[in-house]
Design goal:
single chain; mainly alpha; 3 helices; about 0% strand; elongated
C-alpha cells in the first residue's frame, strides 16, 4: 500500500499506527523526494545538491552553474527510475512471500 498526501496530511501518523497493529505485517519504506530522509536514492544526489548550494552561495556566474544543474536534472530522472524499480521490487518480493 502506498500513502500519498500533501505535507501535514497524516501519512507518518497513519503508518506509525499501522506498524503498532499486531495482526498486520507491515514495514515502512520511505521513498519520497526528501534526500535526507529517504532510504532509496543515488549517492550522487546529495553530492550534486551540495555542489549547487555551494556554487550559488559563492555567487558564481550562472554559466558555470548551468552544467551542474543539467547534470542534477539527469540525476533526478535516473533517481525516479530507481525509486520506481525499487517500488516494483518490494511489491513483487512481498507478493511472492505472502503466497
Amino acid at each position: 500500500m502506498a500513502l500519498l498526501a500533501p505535507d501535514g496530511g497524516g501519512k507518518s501518523t497513519l503508518s506509525q499506527s499501522l506498524l503498532k497493529q499486531p495482526f498486520l505485517r507491515s514495514k515502512i519504506e520511505y521513498m519520497g523526494i526528501n534526500v535526507d530522509a529517504s532510504k532509496v536514492g543515488l549517492p550522487t544526489t546529495k553530492l550534486l545538491k551540495n555542489i549547487i548550494k555551494n556554487m550559488t552561495s559563492a555567487k558564481r556566474p550562472k554559466l558555470l552553474i548551468l552544467p551542474v544543474k543539467v547534470l542534477a536534472s539527469v540525476n533526478k530522472l535516473l533517481e525516479h527510475w530507481l525509486r520506481g524499480g525499487c517500488g516494483v521490487r518490494i511489491f513483487v518480493e512481498r507478493a511472492n512471500r505472502d503466497f
